[in-house]
Amino acid sequence: FVYYNQVIKPALVGLTGPWISGGIEFNWPQHHRPTTYDPVDALIETRDDGSVTVWCSEVERMFRTKGMAGFTLYPDKAYLEVKVQLYNRTPHPQTFLWWAN
After folding, report:
1. Within 13 Å and on the Cβ side, how many CA atoms surround 96?
2. Separation between Cα atoms, residue 87 and residue 56, nearest integer Å
3. pLDDT tens digits for 36-64?
């Protein structure tokens, strides 16, 4: 079950400003992703089996890490598959926190 919010009311909860409740939220590299209210990059993949994946991604500005979440729907299936990929784009170790709700 995914709650469908009828209105969007940003609250000043995030590190850099607005945050909204509702839907599915992916947070990295820390709580309430600093850019949670900003646009993200997106790519749509269509496969021969009829499934479609939407990849949402962003490069975090401070440490240059990249986070990607892929949402896949399959024909005749009643679930949403989520794949997560995190990339350290630097030669140095980076810390991060990850959670989804």
Report:
1. 23
2. 14
3. 778 899 999 999 999 999 999 999 888 89
